[in-house]
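seq as requested:
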Amino acid sequence: MAAITLIEAITQALAHEMAHDDRVVVLGEDVGVNGGVFRATAGLQQRFGEARVLDTPLDETTIAGLTVGLASQGMRPVAEVQFDGFVYPMLDHIVCHAARFRTRTRGRLTCPMVLRVPWGGGIRAPEHHSEANEAMFTNVPGLRVVLPSSPARAYGLLLAAIRDPDPVIYMEPKRIYRQYKEEVPDDGEALPLDVCFVLRDGSDVTLVTWGAQVKECLEAADALAAEGIHAEVIDVATLKPLDFDTIAESVAKTGRCVIVHEAPRTAGFGAEIAARLSEECMYDLLAPVERVTGYDTPIPLFRLEMKYLPSVEKIVAAAKQTIAAG
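struct tokens:
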């Protein structure tokens, strides 16, 4: 079995579902002939034809409308928006229609669609190409928000997202699209949605994160371990609905928590986790919850981009601070 990258795992998952379910169609800008701006759909149009891999106009509003319409009529569309910052014209269809089909029709209709969103910074791209806007979608009832952090989880979670009867916003951390490889069997086995993954056991502090920052948190855990501090690392993976029980169980064990995300700090999804910890786990906490986040600015261009993103050093410092406080 060959090792593959995260972007190759996405292609593998799409091909598997298209081969096994004729209802699955792929659509978006340049997804057909060119195979997508990041090559996630490379070869799919040649294999499955133009009727199932559709090149659309450069019009995100139309892409969203087509996707909702296809899903409402029994198809399982997977739409791609080229970059996270291009998703905003789609919000009317996603928020006002896709997310409400189940409740609007009292369960008679659902909207089994997936919107693939290349997400986050770290690739030296221009404005609107490096945004971390996941919190916006977590505030919308009726949507699932999924953010994989490895090739294996990208494959398994995308399969689950396509098979889910309700709309899924599937955000792909493009900084790690090709950063490393791992073996991913093409066995059609989905991973569970709505579940956090505990990637490393620890007893002193809990690091909670998602997406590209999983890599930094694991490296921070290694650095802390060298100093005798044992960090538990949790990959949230599905932000909405949140598996808070796994986070709470970890904090009950460690007594401390550091939440890491690259989105701006104010009203980032980490604030929701911190609020629930204060509401439900106050007596387990030995110190205040720390957050390591992006800043309340648009992500800066090029030279300052990596300064904006959470780093191993910032995560280690926050872990030490919460330990010192307790």
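The radius of gyration is 19 Å.
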